[in-house]
Amino acid sequence: MQDKSTAITREKLAALLNEDLSREYQAIIAYTVYSQVLKGAQYMSIADQLQIHAGEELKHALTIARQIDYLGAMPNATPRPVKLSDKAEDMLRADLQNEIDTIRNYRTRVRQCESLGEFAIAEHIREILLDEQDHLIDLATALGEDAPAVGD
């Protein structure tokens, strides 16, 4: 028996993965820009981490694009908007919120993949979730906070 969050078709899954792909593009751009513009000694460590995150997000985008193609759809080429600010904390908070949203979406996507019997796609997304959770921890730590509970 499927509930609304898992009742899905291959076409709908591909469309949702395209939304996720837009989120990955957004993360690549944000981490690239933020890693270069963060100023101050307190942000040097996280700036270095953001450069690493940008590379990891590119790997995620390639993985998601491959899964979209596997499902018979065309991967999109449009990022979600990136929040720019002259305040480091605002940029880090925007990234933190984006990671929370990404984790929530990917958790749902795993359940949707499994309901379709697409266990390999679910495994790829689980691997991405490992990185996304690490990104969330890094950002919260840079803000001097505990990592927030994500929930579904």
Describe this structure in words.
This protein has one domain: Up-down Bundle (Ferritin). It has helices at 10-37, 44-70, 88-116, 119-142. It has 152 residues and is mostly helical. The protein is built from four helices and no strands. The longest helix has 29 residues, at 88-116. It starts with 9 loop residues before the first helix and ends in a 10-residue tail after the last helix.
Order of helices and strands: HHHH
Helix amount: over 70%
pLDDT < 50 stretches: none
Number of spatially distinct domains: 1
Give a quick account of the main beta sheet: strands, pairing sense, barrel closure. Answer: none
User: Shape, please?
Assistant: elongated
What do we call the CATH homologous superfamily? Ferritin, core subunit, four-helix bundle
Terminal CA distance reads 20 Å
Strand content: under 5%
What's the Cα radius of gyration?
A: 16 Å
Name of the CATH class: Mainly Alpha
Q: How confident overall, as mean pLDDT?
A: 94
Q: Which short descriptors sum up this protein?
A:
single chain, 152 residues, mainly alpha, Ferritin, 0% strand
SSE blueprint:
Layout: H1 10-37, H2 44-70, H3 88-116, H4 119-142
Helix pairs in contact: 1-2, 1-3, 2-4, 3-4
Summarize the structure.
The chain is mainly α and 152 residues long. It has one domain: Ferritin, core subunit, four-helix bundle (Ferritin). The relative contact order is 0.18.
